[in-house]
């Protein structure tokens, strides 16, 4: 099961669009339909709408316009958009997209660990083995845990109904021909939301940190149900309160 490739596509889905916006090289199609880079990076947007505005907005082409904009990257953006749904999407900043995909999570988790250890005033422990510092076999294990966290976070406001699950599965089917991965995603989308079950995927403290960062990126912390889910997930992941605060700070800093 190649979870790593799919997750990397999802996390990098707005990268090229953001770069195009920044360089002024966007096409007319991208200009009219927008992209995930606009929403995550806040580039060129005067309003504070979420991804739901892009997918459903009458003047912006909706999901069809997005998917026609940039090949596979747009397909990934469509899948990520459906995961975010109509909630007020967090605007994860351009730095995350610039780092690129899975490496971004590793960089943020590594920095959070460093700051947390420094604040404790204790001697540095072993260097954190975050996803950007691991051999391929371990990267795949981390990737599956992170993708599980993303899917769970998408369900944390209760918006994913049967119709939306079918739409999300349809977008993932376009992204990967891996039958095992498709069946795994189907099971994750359809199981009841359980922070304790999600947290059991974290085999190492670094995996726990990465899963939490991915969850913070996806949810709207001003939404009561989503904030409650994050707090319970952190408890089940056994995150030290100081580390939890540092992980959230790292996401805020790149907005």
From TrEMBL:
SUPFAM superfamilies: TerB-like. Pfam families: DUF533 (PF04391). InterPro entries: TerB-like, YebE. CDD domains: terB_like_YebE. This is Tellurite resistance TerB family protein.
């Amino acid at each position: 099961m190649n979870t790593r490739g799919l997750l990397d596509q999802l996390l990098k889905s707005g990268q090229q669009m953001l770069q195009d916006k920044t360089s002024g090289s966007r096409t007319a199609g991208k200009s009219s339909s927008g992209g995930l880079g606009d929403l995550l990076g806040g580039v060129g947007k005067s309003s504070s709408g979420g991804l739901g505005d892009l997918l459903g907005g009458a003047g912006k082409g909706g999901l069809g316009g997005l998917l026609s904009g940039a090949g596979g990257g747009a397909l990934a953006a469509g899948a990520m958009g459906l995961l975010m749904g109509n909630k007020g999407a967090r605007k994860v900043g351009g730095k995350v997209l610039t780092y690129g995909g899975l490496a971004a999570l590793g960089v943020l988790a590594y920095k959070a660990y460093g700051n947390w250890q420094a604040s404790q005033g204790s001697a540095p422990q072993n260097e954190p083995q975050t996803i950007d510092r691991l051999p391929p076999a371990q990267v795949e294990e981390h990737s599956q845990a992170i993708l599980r966290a993303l899917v769970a976070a998408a369900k944390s406001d209760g918006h994913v109904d049967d119709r939306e699950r079918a739409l999300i599965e349809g977008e993932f089917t376009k992204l990967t021909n891996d039958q095992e991965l498709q069946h795994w995603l189907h099971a994750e989308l359809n199981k009841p939301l359980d922070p304790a079950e999600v947290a059991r995927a974290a085999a190492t403290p670094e995996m726990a940190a990465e899963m939490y960062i991915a969850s913070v990126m996806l949810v709207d912390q001003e939404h009561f149900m989503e904030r409650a889910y994050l707090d319970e997930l952190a408890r089940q992941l056994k995150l030290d309160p100081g580390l939890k605060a540092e992980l959230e700070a790292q996401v805020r800093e790149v907005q």
